[in-house]
Write a structure and sequence with these properties.
Bound molecules: zinc ion
Number of helices: 11
Largest sheet: 8 strands, mixed
Radius of gyration: 24 Å
Structural class: alpha+beta
Strand order of the largest sheet: 2-3-4-1-5-8-7-6
Oligomer: single chain
Strand content: 25-35%
CATH class of the largest domain: Alpha Beta
Distance between the termini: 22 Å
Length: 421
């Protein structure tokens, strides 16, 4: 079991006095309070660097906090450690004879699950274990989260398969096959997860593989699209008409296939009738003039009809696409591949696209064989993940078969993801 210190809880007698000290005298920020009904407690989180303090107020005389204050007066109440798998942690502790206050996880603040260890087993300290944000069912086609003023909705366009060797470049099969098991054709299963960003306008980042693939290619790519982007949009309460802006990370068929669709007359047209399509100029130029190496990934009918319909907007530099949403060129995978950074009220989400396609690609050298300039991928990915770990960015993994988004944590030089979506 690996545990990270999350916060320190302080029982307070009088909240106004506590605010006068922590907020006014120390200058710390106090977040809006959160009620934990099951404990009859009101919690005020006070961010203080990467950790926070939690001021705890009793809301009823039989609250554990009221009893604590009565017995011991105000002061340090508990420390909280974050674990990835709370059920597993409790089972492991029980097996060691540790005395638990909660035999089973119960709901805590902000959608987390928590359980307490008895101070008699923790050298006099009340220890809370916490697992952040409850897991969603893996099959869900639309998963939402709020980031400041934005609502982010990760959609699914189904699954496809690519050669496992090509997905992990120079990494030997004996290593990558421990992370993800190949099928009898040596392929691994990958998700396609476009992202909706709802702010002042509604933006869609990438659009999956679409439905223009012929049966032979659908077989080669092991397509599973019983549930695809249309289902996901409607599960999210959206229609193709809801989308104002379609933003491309790059124009490979598994990202841009859904940009267009065939109409009843068989003509290929923009799939989102009201949308402007925003594409980086360098990527557009590479896609309309592919070479022997890039030809298989760029399919003209996915993007040429956008120019014909005059819904194309080419962008030259790292630009703000709408307030709070910026693109950053990564290069590497393709020379003009870009990631999307979404920022609001001090929280940052990063749509990493093919820079970190799955959580198995977190190690620096685990770079796809498809990448045109792998050393650029390595450099960009290293910087992106360093920043993400330090500032707890929410990272979206477009091709992960299970995890749509999570927080990357680093322990002893090893990175892993705490799943959020
Ligand atoms: Zn790609
Ligand atoms: Zn891709």
């Amino acid at each position: 079991m690996k545990a990270l210190l999350d916060h320190v809880g302080i029982a307070v007698q009088n909240l106004d006095d506590a605010l006068a000290f922590y907020r006014d005298a120390l200058g710390l920020e106090i977040e809006a309070p959160e009620e934990v009904a099951s404990q009859r407690v009101r919690a005020h989180f006070v961010p203080a660097g990467p950790l926070s303090l939690e001021l705890l107020e009793a809301t009823a005389p039989d609250s554990p906090i009221a009893r604590y204050l009565e017995k011991r007066g105000p002061g340090l109440h508990h420390i909280t450690l974050r674990v990835a798998d709370l059920e597993g942690a409790l089972a492991a502790l029980r097996a060691r004879g540790v005395r638990l206050i909660d035999e089973r996880p119960r709901p805590g603040a902000a959608g987390s699950m928590v359980a307490f260890i008895h101070p008699s087993s923790a050298h006099g300290v009340l220890v809370e274990l916490k697992q952040i944000a409850a897991r969603r069912p893996a099959g869900a086609v639309a998963r939402r989260i709020t980031v400041g003023d934005f609502e982010l909705i990760s959609l699914s366009d189904g699954f496809f398969r690519l050669d496992g060797g090509a997905m992990f470049g120079v990494v030997p099969k004996v290593l990558w096959s421990r992370q993800t098991e190949p099928d009898d054709r040596n392929r691994i299963r990958l998700g396609m997860r476009p992202l909706v960003v709802r702010g002042a306008r509604t933006m869609l980042i990438d659009a999956g593989i679409g439905d223009k693939l012929d049966p032979k290619l659908a077989d080669i790519y092991g397509l599973e699209r019983e549930q695809h982007l249309d289902h996901a949009l409607s599960a999210a309460g959206l229609t193709p008409e809801s989308i104002d802006i379609v933003l491309a990370t790059h124009l490979h068929f598994d990202h841009a296939g859904g940009f267009t669709a065939r109409d009843e007359a068989g003509r290929v047209r923009p799939r989102f009738p009201r949308a402007q399509y925003v594409i980086r100029r360098g990527e557009w130029e590479d896609a309309i003039a592919p070479n022997q190496r890039t030809r298989a990934s760029y399919v003209a009918e996915n993007f040429v009809p956008l120019a014909e319909a005059r819904v194309l907007q080419l962008v030259d530099d790292d630009a703000t696409i709408m307030p709070g949403v910026k693109v950053r060129r990564s290069g590497g995978h393709t020379p003009s591949h870009q990631v999307v950074v979404i920022e609001s009220r001090g929280t940052t989400a990063v749509f990493a696209a093919d820079m970190v396609p799955t959580v198995a690609h977190l190690p620096e050298a685990w770079v796809m064989g498809y990448d045109l300039v792998p050393l650029d991928t390595m450099r960009f990915k290293a910087a992106l993940l360093r920043e993400a770990v330090k500032n707890e960015h929410l990272v979206f993994f477009e091709h992960d078969p299970e995890i749509a988004a999570g927080i990357v944590v680093e322990e002893g030089g090893k990175r892993r993801v705490e799943r959020i979506l």
